[in-house]
Every structure is written in C-alpha cells, then in structure tokens.
Amino acid sequence: MLKQKLKIITLGTCLVISLTLLVTVSTKAETESPSALTQDISDEACLACHDTPGLQKTLPSGEVLYLSIDRVTYQTSIHGELGYACVQCHQDITGFPHPEMTANTLREFTMKLYTSCQKCHTDKYETTLDSTHNKALAGGNLNAAVCTDCHGAHNVGPPDVPRSRIPQTCERCHSEIYNLYEESVHGSALIGEGNPDVPTCTDCHGAHHIEGPSTGPFHLFSPQICARCHADESLMQRYGISTQVFDTYVSDFHGTTVVLFQKIAPDQETNKPVCVDCHGVHDIRFTDDPESTVIKKNLLVTCQKCHPEATTNFPSAWLSHYRPSIEHAPLVYFVNLFYRILIPTTIGGMLIFVVIDAGHRILNRREHGNE
Amino acid sequence: MSDTRKYLRFTVPDRIEHWVQMASFTTLAITGLVQKYATSGLPQKIIELLGGVDNVRIIHHIAAIVMMLGVVYHLGSAGYKFYVRRSLPAMLPSVNDVRAAWQTLLYNLDRIKNKPQQGRYTFEEKFEYWAFVWGTLVMGITGFMMWNPIATTKILPGEYIPAAKAAHGGEALLAVLAILVWHLYNVHIKHLNKSMFTGYLTEKEMLEEHPLELADFKAGRRVRPLDPRALKKRKRVFFPIYGAIAGILLVSIYFFVNFEETAITTVLPAENVVVYAPLTPTPLPTPIPTRTPLPTVSNTWDGGLADLFANRCEACHGATTAISGLNLSTYEGAISGGEKGPVILPGDPDDSLIVIVQSAGNHPGQLSGEELALVRQWIEDGAPEK
Known about the structure:
The complex is a heterodimer of chains A (371) and B (386). Chain A is 56% helix and 2% strand. Chain A contains 21 helices and 2 strands. Chain A has helices at residues 2-32, 43-50, 71-75, 78-82, 86-89, 106-113, 117-120, 122-128, 132-138, 147-151, 165-171, 175-183, 185-193, 201-205, 216-230, 233-237, 245-250, 253-264, 275-279, 296-304, 330-370; strands at 56-58, 64-66. A two-stranded antiparallel ribbon of chain A has the order 1-2. The longest helix of chain A is centred in the last third of the chain and has 41 residues, at 330-370. Chain B has 16 helices and 2 strands. Chain B has a two-stranded antiparallel sheet with strand order 1-2. The radius of gyration of chain B is 50 Å and the shape is rod-shaped. Chain B starts with 5 loop residues before the first strand and ends in a 6-residue tail after the last helix. The model of chain B has no long low-confidence stretch (mean pLDDT 90). Chains A and B meet through helix 1, helix 12, helix 18 and helix 21 of A and helix 2, helix 4, helix 6 and helix 7 of B.
C-alpha cells in the first residue's frame, strides 16, 4: 500500500517538475542554440536527476540498469562536444514521468536504444546491414554487436585513438581471438609498441560492413588482404620482408587454384590453403619465432593438416616463397633454364627448315609460272 | 594428267590411333596451358568456359589416361608389326636421316640439284615421332610426380615436385609449338597430306615424299610374303608376352591414377578458437560513473549535509522547485519539511520520511547507501546545523 502511494506521489511530483522544466527549458533552447536542439528538453533538465551517481533500476532479469550519467563523460564525448542533447538519442523521453520501460534484460534495453544512431548515421547503419553482426542479429542472436557495443553510448569518441583501442573494442566480445592476436607478430607490435604499420582487426575484417571470415568468399579473397601490405615495397622494406610472397604463392599450385576460384566462382567453399591456413590467422608469428607454423621445424605438421600422409621431404616441395635460383631450388632453376634454351633452339631450328623450305617452294612456283 | 594410283600409308587402326592421340594431345595442351598461364585473361576465360579449374584438372587427367592407354596400344601395334609381321623398323633414326635433313637444306638453298631420296618415314616424320616419344616420357614421369607428390617425396627430395612442374610446363610449351610449327607446316601447309583421313597417298605424293618406299612398292618389296605357319607361331609368342606387358602397364596406369590421396577433401577451420568469448564482466556501453567523494568535513548541516542535499536533491526540492512543498536548500526548509509534514525527525532516523523514502529505493535522485548512511547518522545525532 505504502509503495503504491509512494508511486502515485512520485508520478505526480514528476509531472509537475517536468511541466515546469518544459516551460523554462523550451524558451531557453530556442534563444541559445536553435539549430542544434530541435527538441524541447535541455541536457540540464535530464542531468538534474541523471547526474546523480547511483541511479539504478533492477530489471526483471535481475540485472542492474545504471541510470546515472557522468556529466563530464558525456560532455567530452564527440556528441557532447558538438552540443547534441540527450533527447536527440533518447527520443522517447518527452518529459517526466518517462514512458514505462519494458525491457526485461539489459540487452533488450540496448536493442531498443541503439536504433537511435541510424537516424543521423544512416550511411554507416546501412553498411552494417550486410555485416556478419547484423546477420547474426537478424537470426535472433542478441549477442551480436550493435552500434553502442563498439562505440559506447554516452562516451562516443574516435574509435581508433589510440589505435590499440580498435582491438580492445573487439576484445569485449572476442577475447579469445584478442588473446591470440596480442601475442602475434602484428598484435604485439601494435599493442606492445604502438607500431602503426601493423594491421589490426578492422584492417582485415573491415568495420561496419564486417564480413563473416569463415565464408568461402572471404577465404578466397583473403590473400589479397595480406598482399595489401605484403606486396607494398616501401612498407615491407622497413622490416626486411620480401614482397614476392604474393606472387610466389600465386605461381604455385595452391595460389593458382585459389586465384582461379576467386576469379571464376568466388562464392565457393574450398579447402585450398590461403596465407592464413599455413601462417595462422590471429596468431601469426614472425618467421624466426620458434612457434611459427611455417619454419622448417614446424612445416611438416602444418602441411599434414591437409596432407596427412606427407613425410619429411614433402614440405620442401613448397619453395618457401622463393623464386627458383641457384641458391634456392637450384633443380627448378636449372630445369627452367634447360627449357629456356631447349625451346628456342628446337623451335628456331624447325623454323629455319620451314622458312627455307617455304621460300624455295614459293620461288619455284614463281619460276614455273613464268615458264 | 590424272593420277589414280594410290598407295596405302595408314591402316584404319593406325588412323584411329592417330586421331585418339590427337584428341588427347589437344585436350591436354589446352587444359594444361591454361593452367600454366592461369593469371592471364584468355586462359581464365577458357577455364571459366570449362567450368572452373577443378573441371579443367579432371579433363586434363582423363585426357592423360587416354594418352597413356594410347601408348600401351602403340607398344602393342608397333611390337606386332615389328615382331609378328616382320616389318622393317622404318621409324628407327639413322645417320641417313641427318644426311637427308642436311641435303634438304642444301637443296632448298639451291646448293644441290637433287632432293634427298627418303623412304617410308622422312626425317621430318621421324623427328616428330621421337619428339613425341621423348615428350610423352617426360610428361608421364613429371605428371606422375605432380599427381602423386606424397609418394614421390617419400623417395625424392621435395624440390623434385616444383622441378617436375617446371619440366611439365616447359615440355608442354615445346610440344605445342613443335606441333604448330613442324607438324602444321609439313603436313598441312607444305601440301595437304590427306593420308591420315583417307589412308592413301597418290603416286605423285609418294614420288615427292617417299620415293624409296614407292620404289619398294613397285619392286614388290613393300609387302613381304609371310609364312602362315611362322606367323601363327610368332603370334603365339607375341600375344602372351604383350598381354603380360600390357597388363602390367594397365595396372601401372591404375596406380598412377589412384596411387595416393594427396590431400583431404574436407574444409578445415582456419583457426580453432571460440569466436564469441565476451570479457567478464561484459563491459557496458557506457562505463558506470564513478562517485565523486563526498565533500563532508563534519556531521553537521554546514559541515557537509547542505552540499549533499544541494547536489542530490535541489533539482526537485530546491528553493524554486520545492516539489511537495519540500525545500532542502536551507537548514530551515529541511527541518520544517513539506506538505506531508516534517521529513527529518532529529534523533529518530527510522521514522524520518527522508530515510523511509530513500530506503525504499527508486526515488528520483536516489542517494547511495553511503550517502544515506551519512544522512541517517546526521539525523541520529540530532540533525545539527553547526
């Protein structure tokens, strides 16, 4: 009984306050910044209550929904700095009391609110429509990331400042992958050394349009993602890495097949290996790392993933991204050299016979014609 | 002058053999070269037309099997002609062929008057035949190595596989160019030799190309009389031996094709990792604001409670707002209470409305437990002003 009474009292008082606020605030907004604020309720009206730390509501799921907003956090966010008002995102809030909150869980609450972003960021939102996150969401997986999961809500800021913020954002949901990445040649350079040259999550996967990496098309296309950096002469020079890695891959069995698959039927699933199948995906090591999957000691095991019956000699059938030369793969080099000599000499010799024979016949015919 | 006399050059089985090998060679050449030059535009178009590189490889392998079967047949037919029918081994090269080649050059350059006289097989034909033998051997061996790299590397160093690929591609290019230059010119351009279609050459053609064989025909030396009994005997020797050899070869071809399962056919995951593994506790979209420490210096209105109420309550219960008539902006207002009577009963926090309302929770402007405790203590201490 007491509770109900209190409720009525609270509702009543809130109605009064919101009405008074409405009157004072609406006139204020119009005079101060009419362009930015198309609504009637200023942030001050909201922060009057929500600035109070410890505001919270327990949802039916037992989870706690925190209702307090740190004034400084919001004001230093990109939206706060640009002068956007609370109710521009919280559009259902038109006064007090607020409409009844029907979310049963925190996630449900997020699902209701994140749709605010698309009103202004329509282009970004539309690029997310084909993303793996959105597909998962459409499939009923509420764990799939939505705008605010990556960008935050009240504290939106540049997502790549510092650059290590990017993997740390993905880490929230993909912590195991982050743990692998952190130890990899790329991740350790970014997270440990702040090296801006190395790729992080979004460089390979994209951001809003992020594609499911376990699909056939992504698999087939992935060598070209690696090649963006690894075929870049100036970038690779800094680390003494060969830029022939892509070309030498393409000229071998695996790469030729993958390139053809990608050109002709990019949607197919294939077990033909791409870069990551041998080098690792998120845990790529430098080639002098004893844990690298592609150093001589470990290569056979790597080959055996797809060629289970392979034995000791098998891995050297792959020329380790070297072009055949006298130092690397001399046998291949000399076979090539042999044919580079044999073909012109044989065909050249044949042509000598053919041209002389043809010349003789033509001259003969002319003479006979003259007779 | 009409020339009606014809001389048998290729029997029907010979012609069938030629066309089968021609078909397999052409198929191998197309499906092979498009793989050799797979990064170029036209090969990719052809591969696409053939239904992708997987199909191209299957076709290439089938054509290779046909060619290998053709070789097994050819060993039989050559062996039969040579051993059973006692034909002369006319295809064997000799010094005469080198001389004929040289003399042909000199003749065409008008250095000598007469064309060299050649027999059943000219030096051009022998060259092509033995080039085909060499090519088939190289392609067969290197093809086996690429088809069965695991078996190969059990015996040979791994580098032999890319070397085999290099040789296979080089030899292929050589063979195709040789056919385009040598075969096309000598058989189709120089003059259209129809014997592989009709089986026969005219007397004029025989005179120009194979004058010595023509002389043999005319002298009756071309068809050698065979003793039927000896023929039968030789057949009895030949067929079992050839049968055994052919059997071994056919089994070899079977192994060639099915020797090993080079690679798995399933699609492996690129990485074994749990993709969705959220951090615990799962981070919230906005971090929970941290409390600013209470500015309390002493347990009195002036010593901190005034600031606390100003901070937390004044938006609603201030001097101008005073919802429910409650004004918490002054000590007097706080003590006098609102429409529902006093909210602070000095010395009795449990019955003070401010404590009751705040303890129930969900009050807009909810005090934290810490703050509420402070208010309680203050009321319990008699809610002093100073």
